[in-house]
Amino acid sequence: MITAAALQFTGLLVALAAGVWAALLALAEEAAVGEALHTLGDAPPIAAERRVPLHRALHVARLALLVLGAVAASNVVAWWTRPWLEALATLVVGTLLLFIVGDALPRSVARIAPELSDSALPLARRTLAPFGPLLWLLAWADRGLHAIVETPRPLQPDLGIAQRDMLLGVFTLADTTVDEVMTPRLDMSGIDISASTEEVLDAFRQSQHTRLPVVDGTPDNVAGVVFGKDFVPIAMGLAEPGIRWQTLIRPAAFVPETKTLDNQLRDFQGTPAHIAIVVDEFGGTSGLITREDILEEIVGEIRDEHDAETTPAIRQDGARFWVDGRASLDELSAALGTTIAHAEVSTVGGLVYSVLGRVPRPGDELTLDGFRVVVEHVDQRRVTQVSFEKA
Fold this sequence. Notes:
Largest sheet: 5 strands, antiparallel
Radius of gyration: 30 Å
Shape: globular
Number of helices: 13
Distance between the termini: 77 Å
Mean pLDDT: 75
Strand content: 15-25%
Number of domains: 3
Structural class: alpha+beta
Low-confidence stretches: 40-53
Strand order of the largest sheet: 8-9-12-11-10
Oligomer: single chain
C-alpha cells in the first residue's frame, strides 16, 4: 500500500524534475525567439501557419511543465488527509517557487549570458522531439483560446523585408561600435580655428552640414564644434559689429572607437550636439559620428535634398563584384554569400592592407576565401575600389 510519505516524496521528485525541465525550456525559448527574428519575413504566410514555430512549442511545453510541477508540489492526494488550508498554502508556495525556478530565473540568466540559452536550444529540440504531435495539439488549443479571449483586430500584412531589417538593426546596435559607422578622418569636413568668418560661412555652404568641428592646425586637435544656426545673424548682418566667430565654438564630445551604438545613441538623446569626435587608443582623431549615422543603421540610408547621388558600395557585374574600399566586411559577406571576417579591421580597404602587409598599388592581386581580389583604384595611399571574382 502506498503511504502518504511515499506520495509526498513522489510529488517532490516530480516537482523538481518539472522545475528543472521548465528552466531548460525557458533558456531555450529565449534563444528560439532570437532565431525566429533572424528568419522573420522569409517564410511564406501559409507555410508559417502550417507549422508550429519552435519558440511557441517551447512556450506551451514550459507552461504545461509548470502546471504539472505545481500540482505535484501541492500533492493533491493530501487534500484527503490534511486540512484544506494547509493544502492551499502548499499549492501557492509550490507555484511561486516553480515560477521563480522555471521561468523568472532562467530568463534573467539568458539575458545576462546569452551563450547559455544558445547551448540549451539543441538539447531542448532533442528533448521535445518525441512529443511533437502532443505539442502541436497543445499549440493548436492555445491559438484557439487566444482567438476566443482576444478582441478581433483588423488583419495586418506580415512583416516584410524592410520591417525585418529595421528590427534586426535595432538589435545589432549593442554589437556595433562607433568606428564601424563613423565618417573617417580623411572624409571629415572641418574648420580651422584661424579661418575668417567668410571662410566659415563658405565651409557651411559647401558641406551642407548643420554642425562642423573646429580644429586647431590638425584634426588631432579638435577645439570644439560650431552650429550653422549660430551664424545666421552674422550672415544676415544682424550680429554685433566686430564679433569674432570663435566665441560661438561649443565644447566637443569625444568618444572611444569601441563605444557601442546603443550607448552612443543614448548619449545623443541627452545633448543638443548630435555629433561626437571618435578617438583612437592614443587619443588621435579617427573620425566623427552623428546621430544620423546611428539611425541609418536602423532604417537604412537617410537622404535629403542636399545629398549628392552616390553609387552603391557594392555593385555586381555578372560574376564580378565591384566594392568600395570603405564598405564594411559585413556588407561584403552579405553580397558574396560567405563570411569574411578579420579581428583587427572592419573595412575592405583595411582587409587589403592587412593581407598585403604594405601600401596597396593598382593591379595588386590576392586570393581570399576562394575569391580573386584585384585592387582597382588607389587614391594616394587609400584603397578606393576593389573587385572580387570567384577564383
